[in-house]
Design goal:
The chain is of the alpha+beta class and 97 residues long. The protein is 44% helix and 24% strand.
Length: 97
């Protein structure tokens, strides 16, 4: 990859980071269905993200995704822990054959 293209990509990434940071400024934690809703964006912007098991469907775990503020993994982890303590999904596992 030519250096010029790399620099252009980094500039675009910086713009995305700023815009996504402004968007996330409205929320403590963003909850989205599935694990791929914002995953590609968080991979580019550096926002912390985690999936939490929230159910089972056809013997497969279902998850939701939490996205946190930049450099604030703690709030996101507290939300995940509160959900896991309030439900029993963390203890349910698929049946292996």
């Amino acid at each position: 990859m030519p250096a010029v293209e790399y620099l252009r990509a980094q500039r675009a990434r910086t713009i995305l980071m700023k815009q996504f940071g402004e968007f996330m400024g409205q929320f403590d934690v963003l909850l989205s269905a599935g694990s791929d809703a914002t995953l590609s964006t968080t991979n580019l912007t550096g926002q912390p993200a985690m999936t939490v098991k929230c159910g089972m469907l056809n013997n497969a775990p279902r998850v939701f995704m939490l996205t946190g503020q930049l450099y604030d993994e703690a709030t996101m982890c507290r939300v995940a822990m509160a959900f896991e303590q309030a439900t029993e999904w963390k203890d349910k596992h698929p049946t292996l054959t």
